[in-house]
Design brief:
This protein has 43 residues and is mostly helical. Helix content is 93%, strand content 0%.
Amino acid sequence: MDESNKLILELNNIFCELESINKYKFNEYKEIVKNLHNKKEEE
């Protein structure tokens, strides 16, 4: 495998990792917003 293919594969892996981190963060954020919303309704 030549160097450019290796680089492309590495970048691809990095992007996949970033994407999964973002999904996780996004879900965390959604939970927080949902909880805040529920608290408001209880008051």
